[in-house]
Amino acid sequence: MKTKMVASASLILTLFAAPALADVHHFVALRYQRNVDASVKAEIAERFKALKNISTRNGKPYIISITGGDSISKEGFDQGFEQGFLVIFANREDRDYFVGKPYSEVMDPSHQAVAQFAEPHFEHDANGKLTGIFVYDYIPDGEAASK
After folding, report:
1. For the domain with range 21-139, which CATH number is right: 2.30.30.140, 3.30.70.100, 3.40.50.80, 1.10.10.410?
2. Matching SMART domains, A to Z (predicted)?
3. pLDDT digit string (tens) for 70-111?
């Protein structure tokens, strides 16, 4: 009986703690200006993926994983986005630090350096507004995300 109660208590704790422990998935898609050379696109992809190994928060690595690559879809729904990346963080605080504004006043300096290098190569509209990047954050399995 005692074992059953401990198992039930453990399950309840796991269910209620899961949203707080849920990984945050940060998806990024990139659309380049027409004149950007393939070697520049490849360098941007490598610099972005390298953030997994060089980014630190409070002196420790904090990015769980970064995967990504060039679009290979032939469905016709890519809207011109050529590369996509999935960055996984343990929690919102780590994502907030990585992104900076609007979540945090401080942005990961390694990420900021990659963004400053890459941004001029992305598509912009006639008014200069950046249109060549799409970002979508989610917590897997439909767990509620507070805003």
Report:
1. 3.30.70.100
2. Dabb
3. 999 999 999 999 999 999 999 999 999 999 999 999 999 999
pLDDT in tens, 18-37: 444 569 999 999 999 999 99
Q: What is the 3-state secondary structure (H, E, C) of 17-28?
A: HHHHHCCEEEEE
Helix (H) or strand (E) segment spanning residue 44: helix 38-54
Distance CA 127, CA 139 (A): 34
- Classify 134 as helix, strand or coil: strand
Centre a 10 Å sphere on the Cβ of residue 98 and count the other Cβ atoms it contains. 23
DSSP SS3 for 60: strand
Amino acid identity, position 78: D
HSE toward the beta carbon, residue 32, CA cutoff 13 A? 20
